[in-house]
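Everyone, study these two lines:
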Amino acid sequence: MQKLTRREWFKSSGKVVIAAAVAPAVLANVAEAATSKATQASVQYVTHPNGKEMCSNCKFFIPGAKANEDGGCKVVAGKISPRGYCTIYMPKK
């Protein structure tokens, strides 16, 4: 085994300390990105159905207080019309 000089040891230790200090910030950004929702524009959301395909029939739709009121979506941000449609539509099974 090769003996480390004091200078080499400090360089190696410094890299470990910097990595340990930066890791939480990087991991927090990754977690935030994983939990953020898509914008309505990015999924081409519209407030009218595409034939029989509409948000109220989608597995991601979160209904409003009443059947005809706007609700939410597990994937898309903002208020979502039950009669709306977007490109990530996935029918309920």
